[in-house]
């Protein structure tokens, strides 16, 4: 997968800026706060339809403007695609593919595939469960088009159920709707759990291999933690749905009392073990970083395995956070795919073997 061209219009601190990229390594240099991460954020937005630094897409619209447009031209499996994302301050986001508007944002997820690696990912293992769910969801939304649709529907129904629980204090008749929403969440949740379980199974195997190369003798295992009553997350959707309902019914009274949703796959997590012990509490700083690196590099390999081509790799400032040994470990595994690396260090440039260097100052290529 190769992103050949990108045009930004009023996105973050960019006015109108075109980019023509190298098919291999693109180095994005500049001082702090010039727009390096903004550029990666725009590329990732075309792939995920989200902004990785905020849940509020309108924050991407340049201050003082009403509309931002990101246009990318890329090639996948010898097919050229133009994707255009229009973000508005007052309207919902639009996605256009080769000049036609797509009905749902989820229809665009995974056309352009990206794996982002930023300093926050180095704390993936010690961060809260939300970060690990996001790690799973970002990959799966791109890898499995059906997943993005089901997840979007789950989030919509969940938000509705949250409102029912919250407003039922003033309006108790709303609770008549509760069981129907719970049932819909269990139905969608069963589909989500199966996708996640299969993905984690292959991710764990690959991450284990990569970790063992970086830290010989250490065993990294990744497990999938979902709703307690689900005996086998790889079982059929019907079986899982029944087990989810069982858990939801057992928590019905508690959900009403606490006015919050206590049961469901929106609480899923990954368990990460090093030599059989929880990495978050037993791992050293270096071990935890290596394990996070292995997870992210394994994510990239999952894409290659699924498609036979590498996703774009977006490395935001991550190398500056690593010691020399781990930097080399990452750089040596980049292989054939297209890579975008941001850095503040002009002197570091020769090490990356960049085909093209973009120097960014105040939202312009200089
Ligand atoms: N909607 C917006 N409109 C205008 N400017 C914005 C908007 N959103 C962010 N910015 C500006 O973009 C700049 C940050 O850009 P970015 O995060 O890309 O910096 P960077 O080059 O990655 O810096 P660093 O090296 O510190 O990571 C900030 O100065 C910020 O004020
Ligand atoms: Mg930055």
Briefly characterize the structure:
With 366 residues, the protein is of the alpha/beta class. Helix content is 39%, strand content 22%.
Task: Please provide a written account of the structure.
By secondary structure, the chain is α/β, with parallel strands linked by helices. It is 39% helix and 22% strand. It contains nine helices and 15 strands. It has helices at residues 36-48, 129-143, 145-167, 178-214, 237-250, 252-258, 279-282, 285-307, 324-331, and strands at residues 2-9, 16-20, 25-29, 67-76, 79-88, 94-97, 100-101, 114-117, 220-225, 269-274, 277-278, 312-316, 339-343, 356-361, 364-365. A six-stranded antiparallel sheet has the order 2-1-4-5-6-7, covered by helices on one side. It is globular, with a radius of gyration of 22 Å. Magnesium ion binds at residues 36-37, 316-317, 342.
Features:
single chain; 366 residues; alpha/beta; Rossmann fold; 6-stranded antiparallel sheet; 6-stranded mixed sheet; 9 helices; 22% strand; globular; binds adenosine-5'-triphosphate; binds magnesium ion
């Amino acid at each position: 997968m190769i992103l050949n061209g990108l045009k930004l219009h009023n996105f973050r601190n960019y006015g109108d800026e075109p980019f023509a990229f190298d098919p291999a390594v693109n180095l994005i240099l500049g001082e702090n706060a010039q727009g390096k991460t903004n550029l990666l954020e725009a590329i990732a937005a075309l792939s995920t339809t989200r902004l990785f630094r905020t849940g509020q897409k309108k924050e991407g619209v340049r201050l003082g403007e009403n509309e931002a447009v990101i246009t990318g031209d890329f090639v996948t499996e010898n097919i050229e695609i133009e994707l255009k994302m229009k973000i508005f301050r007052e309207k919902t986001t639009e996605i256009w593919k080769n000049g036609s508007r797509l009905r749902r944002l989820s229809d665009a997820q995974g056309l352009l595939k990206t794996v982002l690696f930023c300093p926050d990912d180095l704390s993936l293992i010690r961060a809260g469960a939300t970060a690990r769910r996001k790690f799973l969801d970002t990959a799966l939304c791109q890898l499995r088009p059906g997943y993005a649709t089901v997840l979007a529907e789950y989030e919509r129904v969940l938000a509705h159920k949250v409102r029912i629980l919250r407003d039922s204090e003033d309006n108790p008749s709303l609770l008549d709707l509760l069981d129907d929403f719970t049932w819909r969440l269990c139905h969608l949740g069963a589909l989500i759990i199966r996708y996640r379980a299969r993905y984690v199974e292959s991710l764990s195997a690959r991450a284990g291999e990569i970790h063992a190369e970086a830290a010989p003798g250490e065993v990294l295992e990744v497990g999938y933690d979902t709703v307690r009553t689900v005996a086998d997350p790889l079982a059929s959707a019907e079986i899982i749905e029944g087990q989810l309902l069982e858990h939801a019914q057992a928590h019905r009274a508690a959900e009403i009392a606490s006015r919050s949703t206590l049961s469901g796959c929106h609480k899923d997590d990954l368990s990460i073990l090093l030599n059989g012990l929880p990495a978050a509490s037993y791992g050293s700083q270096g071990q935890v970083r290596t394990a996070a690196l292995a997870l992210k590099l394994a994510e990239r390999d999952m894409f290659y395995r699924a498609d036979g081509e590498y996703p774009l790799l977006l490395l935001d400032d991550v190398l500056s956070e690593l010691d020399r040994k781990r930097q080399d470990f990452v750089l040596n595994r980049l292989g054939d795919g297209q890579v975008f690396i941001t850095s503040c260090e002009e002197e570091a440039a020769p090490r990356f073997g960049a085909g093209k260097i973009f120097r960014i100052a105040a939202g312009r290529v200089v």
